[in-house]
Amino acid sequence: MLQLKKWGVLLVLLILPNLLLAQNSGKMRGFVTDEKNGEALAYGNVYIEELKTGASTDENGYFFITSIPAGKEYTVVFSYVGYQSKSIDVFVAPNKTTQLDVELSSEGVELQTIEKIGEKVIEQNATDIGLQRIAVRQLEALPKGVETDVFRSLQFIPGVRSTGDVSARYYVRGGASNENLVMLNGTTVYNPFHAMGLFSVIDPDMINSIEFYKGGYGAQFGERMSSVLKITSKDGNKYNFGVKASSSYLTGKVLLEGPIPDGSFILTARKSYNNDILRKFFNEQNAPFDFYDGFFKINYSNPDFIRDAKFEVYGFLSYDKLDEDDPFKESFNWQNNLFSFKWLQVYDSPLLTDFGIHVSQFKGEVIPNLSLVSPKSNEVSDVTFKGDFTYLFDSKDEVGVGVHIKTIDTKLFLLNPNGSPAEIEDFSSNISLYAKYNFLRYENFGLEFGNRFNLIGLTEAGSFRMEPRISATYMIFPFMKFKAAWGLYIQEITTLTDENEVISLFEPWVIIPDYLNPSVSRHYTAGLETNLENFTINIEGYYKSITDLPALNQNKKTADDEDLVSGNGEAYGAEVYAKYDFNPFALTTTYTLSYAYKDIENWVYYPRYDSRHAFNVILEYKIGWGWEASALWTYNTGLPFTPLIGFYDRAEIDNLHNYPYIIESFYPYSLLGDKNIGRLPDYHRLDLSVSKSFEIGFAKFSLDFSVINVYNRKNIFYFKRDSAERVNMLPFLPTATIKIEI
Amino acid sequence: MKNLIKIFSLLVLLIGLISCEEEFSPKNEFQEKYVLSCIIRADTTQQIAVVTRSYDVPGYNPYSNTTDPALDGAYIRIWYQDTVYTLTDTLVDRIDTTRYDTPVKIYKIDNFQPALDSELEIEALLNNGRRLRAFTSLPQTFKFNYNSDSSIPGNEEDAVTIGWYTASNKMMYLPQLKVYWYRKSIGKQDIRQLEIPLDYVNSGGSEVEYYPPASKTLGITYKMDVIDKALRGISEGNENKEDYYIIFARLEVIAMDENLASYYASTSVGGDNFSVRLDEADFSNVQGGYGIFGSYIKKSTSISLDSDYIRSLGYKPEL
What are the residues whose beta carbons fall under 8 Å from the beta carbon of A477, sequence distance 6 or more? Predict the structure, then answer.
């Protein structure tokens, strides 16, 4: 409590001088949107030429500039990569807020390189270490496995790993995949995967902006301790009705959008229709997955109702089922249902409030039919209220405070290997308050410090816990910045993930039981960011420690034994990102050196996703006349595996009714060495993609042809001991997609 | 530009030529381990233990090892109620010689029948001084419910249900319903038994039997149409149904203790078809090595078959 008071006093000391500064100046605010459809242009630039200063738009396209010397006319330049810049002359009156809603046009602008989004050329002192902004166009430019996918594209970011071509699950800086928070419009998505982790449930066509925090993120984010993926959807075309349809080998999808009175809507739907391509992912095994997802969003903004307010209602659902004809094989189904209501309000004062009620449900079930698989089911119901307040001072400093109230109901049913049923049901609430102060008054220095206070935790031990976080940026030279961050992150919910499974269909969520402490991770990050005219290079180093890391109790023998045990984790490494633009080419390379360890029950081992070196090269070529091409080469050193150290004859007791079974009934069984002590061979793969966009009449067409694993590298996925068979990842695989937009 | 494409193409070609498949061995250096397997039957006096060592083979097929890994010369003792019982080295003729052709090396004791719900400890001292130890508790008593069906058909016309009860919730049960029959033309010297499946299911276009798996459930229900079908199958292809005599049915239930249940479940209750588990599930309660020290008991109850029901199938009841 004493610590909380100290933070409060510090905030007041910082805020008071700001209040005294606000004299004889004016302010400017507004939204920057796409002229064609009214979609928000997130992370664009607003620049006041005379003052050589400005601001960036947020994910809503909103900006606010304070401390503008009043009584003068200024030229304000609005720019966004891929759009024509627009200059507007505006008079700033004292103690007034000038509203500037600006629409930018992309007509006549042919990008010579892949869109470079989110470069805050204005806010050079932004405290954003570990943050990566991804444009949907960037996703589409990469060669596609079958479909454009958000999660798969993350794997090319330094510090992010996967365990194979089969899964879009990702691991960030040595953290497990259940430590990654995925949010759609602020709502947590518990199982964001289709078809056993092959693809993301979030259709790229519905995405407006993506922010990905690899670590060191601010106090506004809770719940998970490794990373945050914040996806903001489109609002829908505010001016015209539109239809988009596209088809790949696997799915067909459609998007409808258009205006409604005082707002807009968007509706997307995607459905799988052909499973043949999935055989390539599952070692030619029949994979009868059937899945669909759907999304709608309605936006309403009526000044006669509430001025400067925007209301959003959206819903999202995804459903997967795996149902085989054979009754001796099990069935699966799982679904996400999301619903949210948001109220975004801007004021004449530089205050922005964002209130939302978010409902997220996940249900997963394993139905054994007549197989020996044990039945399992998992349900998560999450209802969260979020209230976030951001206030900008005339000094350019920002303060953010918020309250997040969450209730979670988790139900898990499973049959333990010895046949005992386990029903784990937990209902819990979390009230978190956060406050952060962003010290941005100096052009060459930024400092954000904040604290997240868990008044009530989901677990008993999680109440009255602090999560202090600090992040700083210092511009050493105009082209070079030093960034650093430290933070403490608490996680109170986990999945029962069996680390011995390379592919896992059922990963149920549970609140960390009271016999364990919530997990705590400490992030230490520092890096250099260099931006030259056509060349960008970022270098970051990190160290991450995790205490009270839950792991599945592999020694559980009886129903009375605990399902989880507690351990520790440690990860450290260095990452390099370099990009060189030389029109019409862009070359991006990333390199990661990483080490990850887990210490579970005094046994230290490398987790399944630990890889020492990862290297990616992406070459993009804007050919012109609607043609684009890209090549991606990926290299990773081998993942850990547990080696075979011999065999032994195991007593066969399947036929206990026929005595004396034990005299001769033995069968060979593998004898394994130390956990994950071996390394698989290195992984590398080259993918190519060519796409062409063209128009016929009023319809726009986009064709894409990709080839995965051009030189048919046989990257080993795992070794099947029972059949002594080497199972490789994706072979040479050509794919094609077509998109039609009306 | 052309140069860039040339360099890129050359690079692709080079990578493709040198790196399509890399040799991989999932093996590390062989390590010798020892395995003790002893499963006590609480319904007989003869108990058997086997001690083996681990082995390696040149490839990955363990069946290519044709040298019996069983060890002799071990000193194996069982502690039971303050008495020590010693198992002796014995060679037994091997029936199946497809893999190993030498006699089976076992350790046995002929006069040892521990009581239910009792504690046991076993220790095997190997020739090389290695010691393997394990503990187990025998299953608790279980009894068939007096109100279970005692005849086929049962109280409910479409099913036969037999239940049992016990004070323990840690045991696992494996039931098996058998019907005994013979053909009059061959004679009673050839009495046969038919195991009744729990169901018939369509698998890959053909109908297959589904037998009851081990579980913690304290009872089992057989559907009459399944019993009908199984019994009709006895005389399939033979019009002379009256040559078939049905004697009786018996439900046998094996109750496994906690250790044996875990051992059974570690490989029998498996993962699903799609999850890929790299480290195979194993269970061992043997300290200093691998294997199992567990116990079970088999109990049975007779079930009569209604004469009219047998005649309805065209068969004759053994009166």
Answer: none
